Amino acid sequence: MSRLLLSLGVALGLVRPVSALPPLFKFERPTRYAVTGIPDVRNVLDYGADPGGVADSATGINAATADAEANGGGVVFFPCGTYLIKRAILLGDNVTLQGSGLCTIVQRDATVSAEPAYDTSCVKIRDEMQRAAIRNSKKDCGNVGITIRDLAIDGSLITTLPCASCTAGPTNPSVMLVLAAVDDLLIDHVAVRNAPQDGIYVKNGGGRTVIRAATLDGFNMHWGNGSGINVEMHTTANKPGYPEFVDNYIVAKGPQFCDTNLSVACDADADCPSGVCGNGAGAAGVNGISLTFADAGGTHPAGIIARNRMELSDRHTGISCSGCSGVVIGDNWITSYDSGTRLRKAFLGIQVVGARGKSFSDVIVHDNVILGASVANDKRGILVDDSSSSSARVVVHHNIVRNKALAAGQEAITVRGVADSAVDGNVVQNVTAQHGIGVGGTSSTTADVRVSGNEVTDVTAANAACVVLRGATRTVLEGNTFRDCSRGIELQAGTIAGTVVGRNAYASVTTPLKLTVTDTALGLFDPLGLSYSRATLPAAVVGSIVRCMDCDSAAPCASPGRGRTAHRDNEAVPQWSCD
Q: What is the pLDDT of residue 357?
């Protein structure tokens, strides 16, 4: 019956036979490249670029980018292939550099080229002798609307960086992407591999800059100062802005370098003429992502650094925020990388520091996961530090720091030189050799910091504390959980006036509170956790209450009790009363 109805429908023209239906898709191999002939899209092959990686393609590519800018902007398209360049690709206003994915490789060789630089009035002032792969056409003056996406940049052909002043910079800078004073900059799904110096340098941040889903696989391979993604705020360029770096994958696999010669790689002090291999008093320092206040009269760096994945080694730093104001660092995942050197897997997770006398403020470090590898002489998970003691409003919140076998003088989380700040809800676990959380310092002023809701466990070194205070005034230590530590809280030398300790939980802690100061402005409100004998009742503010194990005789209490709690009474000479 169904066949009869179908045949009748075809005969009457009500139903079309299958062979007459139009195809939904036309499966034909496109002529040469799909973008040829589309308005505002220029194929670099039509301008003489060589996808075989033999001839220099820079001239052809720059002809395409210049043509696009001259016509109001457009897309410069790269088919799959390797494009050798002996000078930088220059990108002007509203130009998009579009690859075909990671099969599009732009390979920079070691040829030094002269590239234009401008002042803030947009007057060309010089040619810079350098070896960048990509630059904006009006460096420091400014461009707008530049996009780079879906391609790879390879710097492996540059193997040495000669230098005259080997702590200032190489003779011919070899940063792979240099974008200075660009508004509406987008770098999307770009891979930078084996960069001899910085991977991506964004001077002054630029307005509405976004770098997302980029891969930085090896950078600063031959120079000991720089970053995978480096933002520096200068007075010599226009367009300071608030960049956003999200969902990037960054592998800092290069070596450490000597402090006084940044071109000499090392993994021990004996490798360096100065005797210091990295992170001493010199300039050596490599970061995954950095925001840096560079010029004294410049703008504080600001921005968002979120959901990035980083693998670090050789004492490198994951995220560095120097002189920042208004920065969110959140949801990043930072762990170790095995470089094979003697410094493998050692790293500093996140640092927020002052720079060139410039303080920092309004910074949130939240929900980051920092996983060490329990290697000896490791570095901090999080460092917040201003030696000028004028920074304020920093929140270190809900981070996880684990498996850190720290070098001397370190803590898993350190906060010092700040005011009006909070360290709350963090998890610190399996810290060996040093303390868990450190607040304050003997050479800086720290005040009004709340340390609450943290869980610190497995701080295994003898005499190491879950939390240590040094010279921090008006600190509140409340609602924390301390487990498997030699000491719960240690109050070290220096004034701790106004500090309050209360309602913390202790488990398998040998000494809940270790006092090496006798500051009568210390408030102890911890009847469940801090336990004392009559002989060890500390000086404390009136109203303090602690647990007393043997307060069953008068001395040193005003009245004997039953060994429950001791209260600090308001008398002419404050003293303890035992319940």
A: 73
Residue 408, number of CB atoms within 10 A of its CB: 7
Residue 191 sits at the vertex; the CA angle it makes with 67 and 183, to the nearest 5 degrees, is 50
What the block records as the tokens of 431 is 């810290």
φ, ψ of residue 528 in degrees (nearest 5):
-95, -25
Q: How far apart are CA 354 and CA 374, in angstroms?
A: 29
For 50: left if phi > 0, alpha if psi spans -120 to 50, otherwise beta; the answer is beta
**Beta partners for residue 400, in sequence order:** 369, 427
Supply 153's token pair: 């940049």
Q: What is the pLDDT of residues 514-525, one digit of tens each?
A: 776 655 566 776
Q: Is the link from the previous residue into 556 a cis peptide, with omega within 30 of 0?
A: yes
CA distance 177 to 290: 15
79, 97, 147, 166 from 150: Cα distances, Å = 11, 9, 10, 35
CA distance 226 to 320: 11
Token pair belonging to 31 = 């002529």
**Nearest partner of 251 among 188, 152, 337, judged by Cα:** 337
Please choose, from the candidates 538, 493, 491, the residue with its C-alpha nearest in 3D space to the C-alpha of residue 514: 491
User: How high is the mean pLDDT of the chain?
Assistant: 86
The token pair that represents 504 in the structure block: 């913390």
Count CA within 13 A, CB hemisphere, residue 253. 15
Give SS3 for 574.
Answer: coil
| 3-class SS of residue 179 | strand
β 303-306/244-246 pair status: parallel
Q: What is the DSSP letter of 29?
A: P
Each domain of the chain, given as residue ranges in start order, spans: 50-135, 155-373
pTM (global) more than 0.90: no
For 20-45, the pLDDT digits (tens) are 434 433 333 333 344 444 568 999 99
Kindly give, in sequence order, each residue whose CB lies less than 8 Å from that of residue 452, ignoring residues fewer than 6 positions away: 422, 423, 424, 425, 476, 477, 478, 479, 480
pLDDT above 50 (res 234): yes
Q: Residue 266 corresponds to which amino acid?
A: C
SS (H, E, C) 370-408: EECCCCCCECCCEEEECCCCCEEEEEEECCEEEEEEECC
d(CA 241, CA 326): 11
Ranges of H-type helices in 156-237:
none
Helix, strand, or coil (residue 6): helix
440, with CB counted inside 10 A (0-12, 13-18, 19+), is buried
